[in-house]
Design brief:
By secondary structure, the protein is mostly helical. 61% of the residues lie in helices and 2% in strands. The protein is built from eleven helices and two strands. Helix 6 packs across helix 8 (149-164) and helix 8 packs across helix 11. The longest helix has 36 residues, at 194-229. The radius of gyration is 19 Å and the shape is globular.
Amino acid sequence: MELVLKKGSAFDGIIYRIIQNGYLDKVINKITDERVKTPTTSITKKGYLTGNEQFLDILNSFIAYFDRIFTPVMYKEACVSFVLEKETPKFLLSKKYCHDNDNLDEFILEYKRLMVNNVSNTLPAIYKYLDKKVMKEFKLEPLMNINDDVVVDRLLRFMIAMVWSNVDEYAIISLFSSIKIALNKVKPNRKEEKSKVIKNMNGVINHYAMHYSIMIENYKKKKKFINKIVKY
């Protein structure tokens, strides 16, 4: 935690709370002491990063990229936390220097893949409730394989459009949160009746479908304006 405070990044507060709230415990437990060579600059005078410093540097880089892509998001800390929740991104354990031009494209692709992950998991459950014309516009289908770089870009384009057309809309939270985690919270136990479990699971699905529909309707109203000012 001391390393977070010493780093002096604009995102120190977000990083501190994400770590403090346990979102990345699984990743942190896998950090090794292996050093990562860096250019000797005024920022990295010693020419290397320790395992912890490397982890924080990549996490900071990811959040900075998230902030740049989703600039208008009002609940940024919550959205970043939802994207990271229950995940163990391999890039956070990488021993490559993320600011090296030779590695930059690789890291950005992995950042994108993580950012669209929850949307790809949500679509199969709610696709039938969503506006078909908008789904066709963004070339979205119920099953989207995020191992495919083209699919990642389609999902990210959809997310950017939703973000820019829903700046002050609370429903935007559902674009970043995990439907899998929400469904797991209402999964059955021995004492619960099957009908109650089904009702609770349908409630989660309807919640996400409603929020996505709200965002899509707002996009449709603002589409002409959004397309003029936003490149995605």
